[in-house]
Amino acid sequence: MFALFGTLLARLFTLSVLEWVAWRALLLSFGLIVLPYGIELAVSTMYRELISVVQSHLSSSTVTNYVINLVSVGAWIGSQLNLDYCLSLILSSVSLKFVLKLIPFVRL
């Protein structure tokens, strides 16, 4: 009698554990594969639609010409002031100071 009860209890416990593991695997695969793909698809679709709406509104006006001119004037001023060399010098000095801080017994 006890052997039959133990066998039934073991079989029931095994089936419930296997069902729980299967549900967990299904939910995990849904959360790791299907859900991110759906979110990426929705975001990319909204982005494409937004870009097409903005381009359709901007193509009818002359705002893009002013924006292009302002960007090119800003780039010309930056190149005349050598901002790229200044920024590279500043960033290289900051990175050198960071690297020197990694060496023990060096005080800066």
Can you characterise this structure?
89% of the residues lie in helices and 0% in strands. The protein is mainly alpha-helical and 108 residues long. The relative contact order is 0.03. The mean pLDDT is 81.
In short:
The protein is mainly alpha-helical. The chain has three helices and no strands.
- Number of helical stretches of at least 4 residues: 3
Helical content class = over 70%
Structural class: mainly alpha
Rg, alpha carbons: 32 Å
Order of helices and strands: HHH
Question: Can you summarize the main beta sheet?
Answer: none
Number of strands: 0
Notable features of this structure?
single chain, 2 domains, 108 residues, mainly alpha, 3 helices
